[in-house]
Amino acid sequence: MKLHITVLPGDGIGPEVTREAVRCLRAVAEIHGCEFAFTERLIGGAAIEQTGTPLPVETLDACLASDAVLLGAVGAPAFDQLAPHARPEAGLLTLRRALSGYANLRPVVSYESIADCSPLRAEIIAGADVLIVRELLGGLYFGEPRGFTDEAHTESCNTMRYTVAEIERVAHIAFQAAQRRRGKVTSVDKANVLETSQLWRQTVTRVAQDYPQVTLEHQYVDACAMHLMLRPQAFDVILTENLFGDILSDEAAVIAGSLGLLASATVGGAVDLYEPVHGSAPDIAGRGVANPCGAIASAALMLRHTARLEAAAEDIEAALQQVLDAGQRTADLQRGSAQASICTDEFGALVVEALAEIADRRHAYHAV
Ligand code: NAD
Asked: CB of 344 within 8 A of CB of 300?
Protein backbone atom coordinates (compact mmCIF):
# COMPACT_ATOMS: atom_id res chain seq x y z
CA MET A 1 0.00 0.00 0.00
CA LYS A 2 1.08 3.58 -0.60
CA LEU A 3 0.33 6.27 1.96
CA HIS A 4 0.63 9.94 0.95
CA ILE A 5 1.69 11.94 3.98
CA THR A 6 1.95 15.73 4.11
CA VAL A 7 4.53 16.74 6.70
CA LEU A 8 4.17 20.19 8.29
CA PRO A 9 7.19 20.71 10.58
CA GLY A 10 6.08 24.22 11.61
CA ASP A 11 7.97 26.24 14.21
CA GLY A 12 10.30 25.89 17.18
CA ILE A 13 10.89 22.23 18.06
CA GLY A 14 8.31 21.16 15.43
CA PRO A 15 10.95 20.48 12.72
CA GLU A 16 13.23 18.74 15.26
CA VAL A 17 10.62 16.23 16.41
CA THR A 18 8.88 15.62 13.07
CA ARG A 19 12.28 14.78 11.53
CA GLU A 20 12.57 11.86 13.98
CA ALA A 21 8.97 10.75 13.37
CA VAL A 22 9.59 10.66 9.59
CA ARG A 23 12.82 8.73 10.18
CA CYS A 24 10.88 6.09 12.14
CA LEU A 25 8.19 5.92 9.43
CA ARG A 26 10.88 5.32 6.79
CA ALA A 27 12.33 2.49 8.91
CA VAL A 28 8.89 0.93 9.39
CA ALA A 29 8.21 1.15 5.64
CA GLU A 30 11.36 -0.84 4.95
CA ILE A 31 10.62 -3.44 7.63
CA HIS A 32 6.95 -3.93 6.75
CA GLY A 33 7.31 -3.53 2.98
CA CYS A 34 4.99 -0.56 2.61
CA GLU A 35 5.44 2.70 0.75
CA PHE A 36 5.09 6.15 2.28
CA ALA A 37 5.35 9.25 0.08
CA PHE A 38 6.25 12.42 2.03
CA THR A 39 5.46 15.97 0.91
CA GLU A 40 6.79 18.73 3.14
CA ARG A 41 4.99 22.08 3.33
CA LEU A 42 5.10 25.30 5.37
CA ILE A 43 2.76 26.24 8.20
CA GLY A 44 2.74 28.73 11.08
CA GLY A 45 5.53 31.24 11.63
CA ALA A 46 7.78 29.54 9.07
CA ALA A 47 5.04 30.07 6.48
CA ILE A 48 4.50 33.70 7.51
CA GLU A 49 8.21 34.40 7.07
CA GLN A 50 8.34 32.91 3.58
CA THR A 51 4.86 33.64 2.18
CA GLY A 52 3.22 36.20 4.47
CA THR A 53 0.42 33.88 5.56
CA PRO A 54 0.29 31.12 8.24
CA LEU A 55 -1.49 28.63 5.97
CA PRO A 56 -0.45 29.07 2.31
CA VAL A 57 -2.84 27.71 -0.33
CA GLU A 58 -0.17 25.19 -1.46
CA THR A 59 -0.05 23.79 2.07
CA LEU A 60 -3.82 23.41 2.36
CA ASP A 61 -4.05 21.88 -1.13
CA ALA A 62 -1.29 19.37 -0.34
CA CYS A 63 -2.99 18.41 2.94
CA LEU A 64 -6.38 17.93 1.31
CA ALA A 65 -4.81 15.79 -1.43
CA SER A 66 -3.03 13.46 1.02
CA ASP A 67 -4.08 10.47 3.14
CA ALA A 68 -2.78 11.96 6.37
CA VAL A 69 -1.07 15.05 7.76
CA LEU A 70 1.80 14.90 10.27
CA LEU A 71 2.26 18.22 12.04
CA GLY A 72 5.02 19.38 14.40
CA ALA A 73 3.89 22.53 16.18
CA VAL A 74 3.25 26.18 15.40
CA GLY A 75 3.90 29.42 17.25
CA ALA A 76 6.86 31.67 17.98
CA PRO A 77 7.32 34.75 20.20
CA ALA A 78 8.23 36.85 17.13
CA PHE A 79 4.60 36.64 15.93
CA ASP A 80 2.85 37.12 19.28
CA GLN A 81 2.05 40.79 18.51
CA LEU A 82 0.18 40.00 15.28
CA ALA A 83 -3.61 40.17 15.13
CA PRO A 84 -5.22 36.82 16.09
CA HIS A 85 -6.18 35.95 12.48
CA ALA A 86 -2.59 36.56 11.24
CA ARG A 87 -0.76 34.55 13.92
CA PRO A 88 0.82 31.12 13.34
CA GLU A 89 -1.87 29.47 15.51
CA ALA A 90 -4.59 30.80 13.15
CA GLY A 91 -3.07 28.69 10.37
CA LEU A 92 -3.45 25.53 12.45
CA LEU A 93 -7.05 26.32 13.44
CA THR A 94 -7.97 26.93 9.78
CA LEU A 95 -6.27 23.68 8.80
CA ARG A 96 -8.13 21.71 11.49
CA ARG A 97 -11.45 23.12 10.29
CA ALA A 98 -10.62 22.33 6.64
CA LEU A 99 -9.60 18.75 7.46
CA SER A 100 -12.89 18.47 9.44
CA GLY A 101 -11.88 15.74 11.89
CA TYR A 102 -14.49 15.45 14.66
CA ALA A 103 -12.81 12.91 16.94
CA ASN A 104 -9.62 13.74 18.80
CA LEU A 105 -7.82 10.69 20.15
CA ARG A 106 -5.25 11.14 22.87
CA PRO A 107 -3.61 8.05 24.37
CA VAL A 108 -1.95 8.42 27.76
CA VAL A 109 0.34 5.61 28.87
CA SER A 110 2.43 5.27 32.01
CA TYR A 111 5.80 3.66 31.22
CA GLU A 112 7.21 1.90 34.28
CA SER A 113 10.78 3.00 33.51
CA ILE A 114 9.88 6.70 33.73
CA ALA A 115 7.21 6.47 36.43
CA ASP A 116 9.33 8.83 38.54
CA CYS A 117 8.58 11.64 36.05
CA SER A 118 4.93 11.76 37.13
CA PRO A 119 4.04 13.66 40.28
CA LEU A 120 1.62 10.82 41.05
CA ARG A 121 2.83 7.86 43.13
CA ALA A 122 4.24 4.94 41.10
CA GLU A 123 1.66 2.46 42.46
CA ILE A 124 -1.20 4.73 41.35
CA ILE A 125 -0.07 5.06 37.72
CA ALA A 126 1.40 1.54 37.31
CA GLY A 127 -0.06 -0.02 34.16
CA ALA A 128 -2.24 3.00 33.30
CA ASP A 129 -3.17 3.01 29.61
CA VAL A 130 -6.04 5.35 28.76
CA LEU A 131 -7.37 6.54 25.40
CA ILE A 132 -9.35 9.77 25.56
CA VAL A 133 -11.77 10.26 22.66
CA ARG A 134 -12.90 13.89 22.62
CA GLU A 135 -15.62 15.31 20.36
CA LEU A 136 -13.90 18.18 18.57
CA LEU A 137 -16.32 20.14 16.39
CA GLY A 138 -19.37 20.65 18.61
CA GLY A 139 -20.43 21.78 22.07
CA LEU A 140 -19.61 25.00 23.83
CA TYR A 141 -16.67 25.94 21.59
CA PHE A 142 -18.82 26.19 18.46
CA GLY A 143 -22.44 26.67 19.68
CA GLU A 144 -24.42 29.75 18.64
CA PRO A 145 -25.44 32.22 19.95
CA ARG A 146 -22.24 33.28 21.59
CA GLY A 147 -20.53 36.51 22.56
CA PHE A 148 -20.99 39.59 24.68
CA THR A 149 -24.66 40.43 24.86
CA ASP A 150 -24.35 44.17 25.53
CA GLU A 151 -22.07 46.94 24.38
CA ALA A 152 -20.63 47.56 27.85
CA HIS A 153 -19.56 43.92 28.04
CA THR A 154 -21.33 43.32 31.34
CA GLU A 155 -22.88 40.07 30.13
CA SER A 156 -21.80 37.26 27.82
CA CYS A 157 -23.01 33.84 26.75
CA ASN A 158 -21.91 30.63 25.10
CA THR A 159 -24.14 27.82 23.92
CA MET A 160 -23.61 24.12 24.47
CA ARG A 161 -25.42 22.35 21.66
CA TYR A 162 -25.22 18.78 20.39
CA THR A 163 -27.22 16.77 17.85
CA VAL A 164 -27.78 13.02 17.99
CA ALA A 165 -25.76 12.63 14.77
CA GLU A 166 -22.76 14.47 16.23
CA ILE A 167 -22.79 12.25 19.32
CA GLU A 168 -23.33 9.02 17.41
CA ARG A 169 -20.40 9.46 15.04
CA VAL A 170 -17.84 10.09 17.78
CA ALA A 171 -19.34 7.34 19.97
CA HIS A 172 -18.79 4.81 17.16
CA ILE A 173 -15.10 5.83 17.03
CA ALA A 174 -14.78 5.26 20.81
CA PHE A 175 -16.52 1.87 20.78
CA GLN A 176 -14.47 0.68 17.81
CA ALA A 177 -11.29 1.73 19.61
CA ALA A 178 -12.43 -0.13 22.74
CA GLN A 179 -13.01 -3.27 20.66
CA ARG A 180 -9.34 -3.15 19.65
CA ARG A 181 -8.25 -2.47 23.25
CA ARG A 182 -9.58 -3.80 26.56
CA GLY A 183 -13.27 -3.53 25.74
CA LYS A 184 -14.47 -0.76 28.04
CA VAL A 185 -15.89 2.72 27.36
CA THR A 186 -16.41 5.29 30.12
CA SER A 187 -18.73 7.97 28.78
CA VAL A 188 -18.29 11.24 30.64
CA ASP A 189 -21.02 13.87 30.96
CA LYS A 190 -22.87 16.08 33.42
CA ALA A 191 -26.30 14.50 32.92
CA ASN A 192 -27.44 15.46 36.42
CA VAL A 193 -27.43 19.13 35.34
CA LEU A 194 -27.21 19.55 31.53
CA GLU A 195 -29.77 18.56 28.89
CA THR A 196 -26.97 18.23 26.30
CA SER A 197 -25.44 15.64 28.62
CA GLN A 198 -28.78 13.80 28.94
CA LEU A 199 -28.92 13.59 25.14
CA TRP A 200 -25.26 12.51 25.16
CA ARG A 201 -25.95 9.71 27.68
CA GLN A 202 -29.10 8.43 25.89
CA THR A 203 -27.34 8.43 22.52
CA VAL A 204 -24.16 6.73 23.75
CA THR A 205 -26.27 4.08 25.52
CA ARG A 206 -28.09 3.39 22.24
CA VAL A 207 -24.86 3.22 20.20
CA ALA A 208 -23.46 0.75 22.79
CA GLN A 209 -26.09 -1.79 21.68
CA ASP A 210 -24.13 -2.18 18.42
CA TYR A 211 -21.08 -3.26 20.47
CA PRO A 212 -22.26 -6.00 22.88
CA GLN A 213 -18.69 -7.08 23.60
CA VAL A 214 -17.80 -3.61 24.94
CA THR A 215 -18.73 -2.64 28.53
CA LEU A 216 -20.18 0.85 28.88
CA GLU A 217 -20.15 2.89 32.09
CA HIS A 218 -21.18 6.49 32.64
CA GLN A 219 -19.42 8.97 34.91
CA TYR A 220 -20.07 12.59 35.74
CA VAL A 221 -17.16 14.77 34.68
CA ASP A 222 -16.33 15.94 38.20
CA ALA A 223 -16.18 12.35 39.48
CA CYS A 224 -14.12 11.28 36.46
CA ALA A 225 -11.56 14.04 37.06
CA MET A 226 -11.04 12.62 40.56
CA HIS A 227 -11.03 8.91 39.60
CA LEU A 228 -8.51 9.58 36.82
CA MET A 229 -5.97 10.74 39.40
CA LEU A 230 -6.87 8.08 42.01
CA ARG A 231 -7.12 4.93 39.88
CA PRO A 232 -6.21 5.57 36.23
CA GLN A 233 -5.84 1.81 35.62
CA ALA A 234 -9.64 1.51 35.89
CA PHE A 235 -10.04 3.36 32.56
CA ASP A 236 -9.70 2.02 29.03
CA VAL A 237 -11.46 4.43 26.61
CA ILE A 238 -12.91 7.71 27.90
CA LEU A 239 -15.52 9.20 25.55
CA THR A 240 -16.56 12.78 26.14
CA GLU A 241 -17.68 16.06 24.62
CA ASN A 242 -15.46 18.96 23.59
CA LEU A 243 -15.04 21.05 26.75
CA PHE A 244 -14.85 18.11 29.17
CA GLY A 245 -12.36 16.38 26.86
CA ASP A 246 -10.16 19.45 26.69
CA ILE A 247 -9.89 19.57 30.47
CA LEU A 248 -9.64 15.82 31.15
CA SER A 249 -6.99 15.21 28.49
CA ASP A 250 -4.69 17.88 29.94
CA GLU A 251 -5.28 16.48 33.42
CA ALA A 252 -4.46 12.96 32.18
CA ALA A 253 -1.08 14.17 30.88
CA VAL A 254 0.08 14.15 34.52
CA ILE A 255 -0.05 10.34 34.39
CA ALA A 256 2.56 10.15 31.60
CA GLY A 257 5.06 12.52 33.22
CA SER A 258 6.07 14.88 30.38
CA LEU A 259 4.24 16.85 27.73
CA GLY A 260 6.87 15.66 25.26
CA LEU A 261 5.57 12.08 25.46
CA LEU A 262 2.00 12.68 24.33
CA ALA A 263 0.59 12.02 20.86
CA SER A 264 -2.74 12.83 19.26
CA ALA A 265 -4.84 11.90 16.26
CA THR A 266 -7.79 13.80 14.83
CA VAL A 267 -9.92 11.53 12.67
CA GLY A 268 -13.32 11.25 11.03
CA GLY A 269 -12.98 14.18 8.61
CA ALA A 270 -11.74 14.54 5.05
CA VAL A 271 -8.08 13.91 6.04
CA ASP A 272 -6.70 12.64 9.35
CA LEU A 273 -4.32 14.89 11.30
CA TYR A 274 -1.58 13.62 13.61
CA GLU A 275 0.40 15.85 15.95
CA PRO A 276 2.18 15.73 19.29
CA VAL A 277 0.21 17.40 22.06
CA HIS A 278 2.95 19.89 22.91
CA GLY A 279 3.56 23.29 21.32
CA SER A 280 6.64 24.75 19.65
CA ALA A 281 8.55 25.10 22.97
CA PRO A 282 10.52 28.25 22.02
CA ASP A 283 12.45 27.98 25.30
CA ILE A 284 14.32 24.89 24.06
CA ALA A 285 13.99 25.25 20.26
CA GLY A 286 17.15 24.93 18.16
CA ARG A 287 19.13 23.14 20.87
CA GLY A 288 18.33 19.58 19.74
CA VAL A 289 17.09 18.57 23.20
CA ALA A 290 13.35 18.19 22.57
CA ASN A 291 11.69 14.88 23.37
CA PRO A 292 10.55 13.35 20.05
CA CYS A 293 8.36 10.64 21.69
CA GLY A 294 5.07 12.51 21.16
CA ALA A 295 5.79 13.03 17.45
CA ILE A 296 6.99 9.44 16.96
CA ALA A 297 3.95 8.09 18.83
CA SER A 298 1.75 10.29 16.60
CA ALA A 299 3.29 8.53 13.60
CA ALA A 300 2.29 5.20 15.21
CA LEU A 301 -1.28 6.47 15.54
CA MET A 302 -1.21 7.34 11.83
CA LEU A 303 -0.25 3.77 10.99
CA ARG A 304 -3.03 2.43 13.21
CA HIS A 305 -5.92 4.72 12.29
CA THR A 306 -5.28 5.84 8.71
CA ALA A 307 -3.08 3.09 7.24
CA ARG A 308 -4.66 0.26 9.30
CA LEU A 309 -1.15 -1.15 9.79
CA GLU A 310 -1.65 -2.30 13.38
CA ALA A 311 1.51 -4.43 13.51
CA ALA A 312 3.64 -1.51 12.32
CA ALA A 313 2.01 0.83 14.85
CA GLU A 314 2.68 -1.66 17.65
CA ASP A 315 6.31 -1.95 16.51
CA ILE A 316 6.84 1.80 16.93
CA GLU A 317 5.19 1.78 20.36
CA ALA A 318 7.27 -1.23 21.44
CA ALA A 319 10.44 0.45 20.13
CA LEU A 320 9.70 3.63 22.10
CA GLN A 321 9.13 1.57 25.23
CA GLN A 322 12.34 -0.43 24.65
CA VAL A 323 14.41 2.77 24.43
CA LEU A 324 12.83 4.22 27.57
CA ASP A 325 13.21 0.90 29.40
CA ALA A 326 16.91 0.93 28.51
CA GLY A 327 17.17 4.11 30.59
CA GLN A 328 17.58 6.54 27.69
CA ARG A 329 16.04 9.91 28.46
CA THR A 330 15.81 13.31 26.85
CA ALA A 331 16.36 16.28 29.19
CA ASP A 332 12.65 16.70 30.07
CA LEU A 333 12.66 13.17 31.55
CA GLN A 334 15.78 13.66 33.63
CA ARG A 335 15.38 13.33 37.37
CA GLY A 336 18.51 14.12 39.36
CA SER A 337 21.98 14.96 38.12
CA ALA A 338 23.13 11.31 38.12
CA GLN A 339 21.34 10.69 34.83
CA ALA A 340 22.82 11.80 31.51
CA SER A 341 20.34 12.94 28.89
CA ILE A 342 20.48 12.33 25.17
CA CYS A 343 19.61 14.60 22.25
CA THR A 344 16.53 14.48 20.03
CA ASP A 345 18.32 12.84 17.10
CA GLU A 346 20.12 10.34 19.34
CA PHE A 347 16.76 9.28 20.75
CA GLY A 348 15.32 8.94 17.23
CA ALA A 349 18.32 6.84 16.13
CA LEU A 350 17.81 4.51 19.11
CA VAL A 351 14.13 4.06 18.23
CA VAL A 352 15.12 3.13 14.66
CA GLU A 353 17.66 0.63 16.08
CA ALA A 354 14.99 -0.81 18.37
CA LEU A 355 12.63 -1.18 15.39
CA ALA A 356 15.27 -3.26 13.59
CA GLU A 357 15.82 -5.41 16.69
CA ILE A 358 12.10 -6.01 17.08
CA ALA A 359 11.90 -7.08 13.43
CA ASP A 360 14.89 -9.41 13.89
CA ARG A 361 13.30 -11.00 16.97
CA ARG A 362 10.08 -11.54 14.99
CA HIS A 363 11.97 -13.22 12.14
CA ALA A 364 13.89 -15.43 14.58
CA TYR A 365 10.62 -16.44 16.31
CA HIS A 366 8.94 -17.35 13.01
CA ALA A 367 12.04 -19.23 11.84
CA VAL A 368 11.91 -21.56 14.89
P1 NAD B 1 4.71 24.20 24.85
O2 NAD B 1 4.01 22.89 24.80
O3 NAD B 1 5.40 24.63 23.63
O4 NAD B 1 5.80 24.17 26.04
C5 NAD B 1 5.45 24.02 27.42
C6 NAD B 1 6.69 23.51 28.19
O7 NAD B 1 6.91 22.14 27.87
C8 NAD B 1 7.97 24.24 27.82
O9 NAD B 1 8.79 24.39 28.96
C10 NAD B 1 8.65 23.32 26.82
O11 NAD B 1 10.06 23.43 26.81
C12 NAD B 1 8.19 21.95 27.31
N13 NAD B 1 8.06 21.01 26.18
C14 NAD B 1 7.07 21.00 25.26
N15 NAD B 1 7.28 20.02 24.37
C16 NAD B 1 8.43 19.43 24.74
C17 NAD B 1 9.19 18.35 24.18
N18 NAD B 1 8.79 17.67 23.08
N19 NAD B 1 10.34 17.99 24.80
C20 NAD B 1 10.75 18.63 25.90
N21 NAD B 1 10.07 19.64 26.47
C22 NAD B 1 8.93 20.05 25.88
O23 NAD B 1 3.61 25.27 25.30
P24 NAD B 1 3.73 26.86 25.44
O25 NAD B 1 5.08 27.21 25.98
O26 NAD B 1 2.53 27.27 26.17
O27 NAD B 1 3.60 27.42 23.96
C28 NAD B 1 4.71 27.74 23.11
C29 NAD B 1 4.19 28.07 21.74
O30 NAD B 1 3.57 26.91 21.18
C31 NAD B 1 3.11 29.17 21.71
O32 NAD B 1 3.35 29.97 20.58
C33 NAD B 1 1.82 28.41 21.58
O34 NAD B 1 0.81 29.15 20.95
C35 NAD B 1 2.25 27.24 20.73
N36 NAD B 1 1.42 26.03 20.86
C37 NAD B 1 1.22 25.32 19.71
C38 NAD B 1 0.51 24.13 19.78
C39 NAD B 1 0.34 23.35 18.51
O40 NAD B 1 1.01 23.65 17.52
N41 NAD B 1 -0.51 22.33 18.48
C42 NAD B 1 0.04 23.65 21.00
C43 NAD B 1 0.31 24.37 22.16
C44 NAD B 1 1.01 25.57 22.07
From this structure: no
CATH architecture of 119-256: 3-Layer(aba) Sandwich (3.40)
The answer to whether residue 325 is catalytic is no
Question: Which band of pLDDT confidence, cut at 50, 70 and 90, is reported for residue 338?
Answer: low
Contacts of 208-211 with CB under 8 Å at 24 or more apart are 208/171, 208/175, 210/172, 210/175, 211/175, 211/176, 211/178, 211/179
Query: Domain 1-102+259-368: which topology?
Result: Isopropylmalate Dehydrogenase (3.40.718)
Taking CA atoms only, the protein residue closest to ligand 1 atom 22 is 260
Query: Mutate which of 18, 259, 264 to test ligand 1's pocket (most atoms within 8 Å of Cβ)?
Result: 259
Measuring from atom 43 of ligand 1, which residue has the nearest CA?
279
Over the stretch 249-298, which tens digit does the pLDDT of each residue have?
989 989 999 999 999 999 999 999 999 999 999 999 999 999 999 999 99
Active-site residue, 141 included: yes
User: Quick check: is 190 catalytic?
Assistant: yes
